[in-house]
# Entry
Amino acid sequence: MGYPQKPHPKETVVLSRYFGDPEAKTYQGWVKRGGYEALKKALAMDPAAVTEEVKASGLRGRGGAGFPTGLKWTFMPKEKKGPHYLCVNADESEPGTFKDREIMRWTPHALLEGTAIAAHAIRAEVAYIYIRGEFTEPWAVMTEALADANAARVFGNITIHLHRGAGAYICGEETALMNSIEGKRGNPRIKPPFPAVAGVFGKPTTINNVETLAAVPHIITRGSAWYKGLCLSSPKSTGTKLFSVCGHIQKPGNVEVTMGFPLKDVIYDMCGGMRPGRTLKACIPGGSSVPILTKEETERCLLDYEGVAEAGSLLGSGGVIVFDDSADMVYQIMRLAKFYAHESCAQCTQCREGTAWTTKILERILAGKGQLKDLDLLLDLSENMTGKTICVLSDSCATPVISGIKKFRSEFEDYITGKKRPVMVA
Amino acid sequence: MPDLVNLTIDDVPVSVPKGTLVIEAAKQAGVLVPHYCYHPGLPVAGVCRMCLVEIEKAPKLQIACATQVADGMVVRTRSSQARSGRTGVLELLLINHPLDCPICDQAGECELQDFTFQEGRAATRYSPTYPKRFNPVEDFGPDILYVPNRCILCTRCVRFMEDVAQEPVLNVSERGDRAFIGIYPDALLDHPWSGNVVDLCPVGSLLSKDFLHKARAWELDKTASVCTGCSQGCNVTLDLRDETVVRIRPRPNLEVNRYFICDHGRANYRWMNRGDRVEAPLVRVGGELKAVDWDEALERARTILSGAGGSAVALVSPKASTETLYLARKLLARFAWTGAFEVVMGEEAPLAGVPNLALRAERAPNAKGAELLGYTRDYGAALKAAERAAVVLVIDDPDAQFTTAGEVICLGTEVPTGAPLHRSGVVLPIANVAEEDGTFVNRDGRVQRYFQGRGAPAMARPGWWVLGQLTEAPPDSASAAFDALAAEVEAFRGMSYATLGLTGIRAGAGAGVPA
Amino acid sequence: MTAPAARVEPYQPVFVGAAKAKLDGIIARYPAKQGALLPALWMVQEARGWISDEAMAEVADVLETTPAQVKGVVTFYTMYHQHPVGRNFVQVCTTSCCNLCGAEDVVKALLAETGAKELGATSPDGKWTVIEVECLGACGFPTPILVNDDFIENVTPERVPELVRKYR
# Structure
């Protein structure tokens, strides 16, 4: 298990092997642990061959979208007409998710190595690692690691730069991230054009998540067949995933399991289960933007892209937020809506106004001034906010509202009927 | 011949060049897709989300302003899904929008009003207990006020200043529903073309101080005209209230000014309403100018002309219409005549993002037209010639300073001073640009029509009519005057009011010059 | 007796000498100067504690963009301060995961212990400003807070007095 816990026997420890090991942060320490061998091997391979290997492994984007990584790399132009860029999305801001932070602060060289291999595969000369502004420790660790690796000249012709964000969840959206690197407001762009055609600074660009790239050196060293073999359920979901477990849980932290692992075991076994006297009420399995699961749905859910979809949610970033029976679902959904309202970039009407209005309605309900028709209003508003905007922040605000009202309607009604006393002042 | 794409929009088949946006293709099908942030003169933003349409085989609604046409595409702009998407946008735009219509300048020409009436909800679902977002009104600069409460953040103004004016002085500040249009604290919105943001603003958020609370949109009579501020010849619309010109706005002409006019032209309307006009024909009787009727005045003018021989000089305004200038030359044809004009010059101010568009140094609309008709810029030489001329014809040059041994006939809008006042045998009142039909020729040789917006004051008549009355075959309309001109002057061959239409034709177009 | 008029100090540029050299190095990382905008603003904030309008004008000048564009960026990103803040700027995550684990109690404890009393206000001794922020990406270590650049995990109301003492 992730720092500060020891690995659990049921974990498949690949990315998290050196979490908590201070020597692994250093260049010497990383090389001693077999680091940068994969990079040497990859740099000697043809870029297309590297891409093929990653494609064959079945690795999918670990930031939340789950897009097949090797396939994404093939979208770059076949004929190189100018600079190519790689952007690494280290803007981890999805509530419930804290895995990329661990990768960066414990195994910075894993990320640097994966970045360089990916840059080689897509024939990018320059890679920008976009680290969110609040990650002061990962920033310091990555800065030192990059300096050491550069001194050892391991990257060949590839140059890696760190770029610090300044407080915007929306910059985790790939096109907004590119705008932020360009020194602009973090506004998502309309697509087309797609980043592989015209991305950062107008040039062909690929954006990959930290966890995705950290897996790449392993695939190069141990082979795509090995990675593909790490699969417990759906053959379309391979490898391991770090699940960040938090909320009402005894032992919060990251667990690394093979795709298809039962969520029930993660919660009750690996993470110590509920606090004394408490029972599980709900769980959001993939970061706050995915639908909420009930206890029953949670306990039968398998953790891979297809399994979570079948259970009624999405794997997303793998941020597992656990709610026990003491949780006030209405209040927590309001707090999530408030999060989205705060983070909206303001471009699209539905998001800019809708997230704020959703928050206000929920606050009114929590203040005891709600009416039953407010639930219909919330659902209608959420539908208006879904599928109609440049990016999915708007949909992400609507999702917990829709699944919350659908599965926990009685909690909303309790506030409305007065059965539950108000917890806010409107 | 560009590749054509065939698609259907609301069951109407259209055929458009490859690369056309669905929102533009829809216009061909006679369909206006409601929108705010889209504007054909600005780069696409896709932020307002108003132009959502249903496209068969697409899983989600698409915005028509950012979707290119494809062969066989089937677009439905009025399906229930598309309409409910737009109703949703309207509802959300109105939750913080103040119900200011009674005191908002935009009322009556407001796209938020229009589309809400068409597709919005009848009542709000936003609780009356929620305060609306409030920010105080800001003074952005010389002529522009910003009312943040009404702003729908379409960003047209920001994109105009950034891409078209190429002076990025406006930004979007803050984030989420706290966002508003910002200007750097010490900066002013004083770019010579910045007034366009007021036209571009779909709501009453960016306002012209000059027009503030001056008139209601529905009180205005609109007339197509051409700006008289310089030789660029931007197409404009004159807005008149009770026969007074109260505002000038740009009229689209893709060949000249696209969708924009400069601030100098925008402000250039007060002179049209001046009160010190020549109101009646005047003849000199016993040393004094006396008001008479047209018959008597025209008779006096004829007498002057028939009694003169030798040379004649015409001192004209480069603001006079082509028809007037043509008839003046025709009138003086039997003399050895010189015609000249003087143009006031000023600083040029280009609109960087549009090729060949600027506030021109020549501050007059028809210098080129005058040149094509044989008038020169050598005003000094004309003044010299005037000394010995038998007749000096002054057209709208009220303070011309000259000495002459001959007679003076003056056509004027304003009351003349100087030589025309003291020496004219007859002063004939004429109409200005708002009061007649006519044409100007811009610096590129483009012949453009302007239309009459109101009657001329008192007894004033159009210049072409006045001069026509003094010739053998007076034309009975401005159009007929132009036809006569086109028949005689090579550069205008083949043109007529019908072919000039609303956007004009370049002179010499028949000779392979693009229209 | 009237107080003497406040002396308005003339603005001192940030990007001179070593700072300018550092910025030049950063500019070289991007194919367009504007790419260095976020890093440049961080440098200003590190040097001055906040980003004033004059600083924005200086940055605009150095990066060949307009003050309006710089201001648009500064107002977008929440970590840039547009006015001076307390010496210790405290950011407390209160988004759902931390909220479930008592983050709001941590906020209350901090407001009380530091004397700041209200969110966003600076304490009377000028040493503390406390604000609530969104997810800090350390949900497994509730409640995480940032005191200036120090990221502190597992803060509870019980730990607050000792923490405040340490920074005071």
Summary: The longest strand of chain B covers residues 235-241.
